[in-house]
């Protein structure tokens, strides 16, 4: 299999962490690319020119990190990332974390291309408000360290928080979110997360 990715995409990191957690690292070729420059190799696989894209052994190109996560969860070893007995809780928590990830990513991109005006726009204000609400909810819910066996919600939450800390640290002050900082510090000791830190 091939995984098209770069080092700063939170969505690509989710896919890579899932692959590591499911014991698929030795079956995965990492293809580093720049989606913003219409990388020809990436475009040859998928028309959206977004990462991550997973090319399966039978030549199918799957875009979107949560779809890739589902595929790898079925292909890999060990317990399911979305255990049947906790499916509603895991998916609900994943949706909060993924929404945080998307809002943070879109703020970063908007600031890159629009400057300070990005935050003042209607969409900018909605994104900032969404981040504040998501962080407040997660601060209440993540009082315990990550479990020994990660589930998809924990992977998405760890990556989302790490991305905010990496790109938008002013939105995640430790004084306001002590539980999140403690939880993330514990989660990032796990090998799959430690190996994939943002750079």
TrEMBL record:
Q: For the GST N-terminal domain, which residue ranges apply?
A: 1-80
Pfam families, alphabetized: GST_C_2, GST_N_2
Q: Which GO terms describe its cellular component?
A: cytoplasm
Superkingdom of the source?
Bacteria
SUPFAM superfamilies per the record? GST C-terminal domain-like, Thioredoxin-like
What name does the UniProt record give this protein? GST N-terminal domain-containing protein
- Which source organism? Comamonas kerstersii
């Amino acid at each position: 299999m091939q995984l098209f990715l770069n080092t700063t995409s939170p969505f690509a990191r989710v896919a890579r962490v899932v692959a590591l957690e499911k014991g698929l690292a030795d079956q995965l070729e990492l293809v580093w690319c720049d989606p913003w420059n219409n990388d020809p190799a990436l475009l040859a696989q998928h028309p959206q020119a977004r990462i991550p894209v997973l090319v399966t052994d039978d030549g199918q190109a799957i875009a979107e990190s949560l779809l890739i996560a589902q595929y790898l969860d079925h292909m890999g070893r060990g317990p399911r990332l979305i255990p049947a007995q906790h499916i509603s809780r895991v998916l609900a928590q994943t949706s909060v974390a993924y929404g945080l990830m998307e809002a943070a990513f879109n703020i970063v991109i908007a600031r890159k291309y629009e400057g300070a005006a990005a935050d003042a726009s209607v969409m900018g204000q909605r994104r900032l408000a969404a981040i504040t609400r998501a962080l407040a909810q997660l601060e209440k819910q993540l009082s315990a360290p990550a479990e020994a066996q990660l589930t998809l919600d924990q992977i998405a939450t760890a990556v989302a928080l790490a991305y905010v800390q990496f790109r938008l640290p002013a939105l995640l002050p430790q004084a306001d979110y002590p539980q999140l900082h403690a939880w993330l510090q514990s989660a990032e000791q796990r090998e799959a997360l430690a190996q994939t830190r943002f750079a």
